[in-house]
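Appendix B. One record, verbatim.
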Amino acid sequence: MLGRFPLSLLLLMNDSRYPWFVLVPQRSDIREIFQLPEIDRQHLLKESCTLAEALTATYAPDKLNVAAIGNLVPQLHLHHVVRYRTDAVWPAPVWGKLPAIPYGEQGLAVLRQRMRDLGMAEFLPQD
């Protein structure tokens, strides 16, 4: 777990090829956004937009992919994947194409600091 929003856990996919984050609303037995109560839908959209704005400001992507796929993991979760026309699998989806390259301790520390620098500190645990 990278951090926590009021509704969702903030996870990081451990593949340094793509800055790839996942929001997981902490509600049981929810598979689809429409199953959330209206107030939770609003919170999820706000959290997703907050994350998307921070990622865009940090990474300046050619495209930020935001998707609720969930074919293998049924719990509702939203992927936020930073994409560039120069990345290894552009324009194909990132999942399942290439073996992951883990961040390592230094890479994770840099990523966390970038997120703090963009006002995300309240959502990240203290080191």
